[in-house]
Amino acid sequence: MNKNIITKHYTNNKEILNLENINPVPFIFLLLFTVGMFFSEMSLSFVINEVITRFIRDGILVLSLLLPITAGMGLNFAITVGALSAQIVLILAIDLNFYGITGFIIACFFAVVLSVILGYAIGYILNKVKGKEMITTIIIGFLANGVYQLIFLAGYGTFIKPRNTEIILSRGVGVRNMVDLAPYRNILDNIWKINVGDIIIPVFMLIVVLSFCIISAYLMNTRLGQKIRVTGEDMQKAESLGININSVRINAMIISTVIASIGQMIYLQNIGMLNVYTAHLNSDIFSGAALLAGGATIRKAKVRHAVLGIFLFHSLFIVSPQAGQNIFGNAAMGEYFRSFVAYGTLVIALILNKNKLY
């Protein structure tokens, strides 16, 4: 008996120490950031300020990816639909003159309602294509973008009558490319800020994002979270345990879409401007890249991966343009490198974890 215990203990330690279990992606990003920081010659306080801003701006969007991955559906590129829900409601709120913190809260409520409906539809579709969820969510994102563009480029001013003509193009049909979100700009960021030397810390928003981190971690320990985990590990085993896997997967997509819509609301109030036709683009790619940069895979992701990934990914994003300017004499090289980093992260993570895809 003791021999069996020792053998089991040795085997477990061997698995823990197995180098194959170490994800090199965070170390690659840390190395690239260190090199970029050196050549960019940026001040540390500037980089820290920018990283904090991006953490509160993009943190919740990244967290929206956790549940679908745990449920075995891979990266949910359909979080674009959640982002679109937020943008639709914000445009309507500006059109109907819902301003101030009250208007923002009302907009958040309706964004959540819309994202619940759309999240259910996405989950229903994905239950029909088990095993092909990632490519399906990409197509769903494209479809949702096309419908959204049609409504606000051709429908607004024709069958949808605007009240606020300032957001409409001069021809009377279609919403302008840029809509000013002045009534909501930094409406949450400015609630509670403190200065520590040259570093500005938006305490309230940090608490909000960290609260979502805690809620996400707690959710995985609830009964629903356990069902999601079992479903992601083995759907046949989950069914044998009496778990309705279709319902579990739909719930995971609903929660993911809701969190994404809230994340986009926070993102847009931080930016203060809504680029109507492009603000949602790349929200899925950048969020997925940030998560993978933190050491997550498309089969396993935790809150710590999201937090670490946001800091690593966006730190490199901040220093790369100036580093490109100083190394090559051309800032455009740094901008190209940003896109390379985003898509390259996905490719590297998929290659390194190719044995974990199925």
Automatic annotation (TrEMBL):
This is Inner-membrane translocator. The chain crosses the membrane at residues 27-48, 60-93, 99-126, 138-159, 199-219, 250-268, 274-294, 306-324, 336-353. InterPro entries: ABC_transp_permease. Pfam families: BPD_transp_2 (PF02653). The lineage of its organism: Bacteria, Bacillati, Bacillota, Clostridia, Eubacteriales. It is found in: Cell membrane. It is a multi-pass membrane protein. GO terms for molecular function: transmembrane transporter activity.
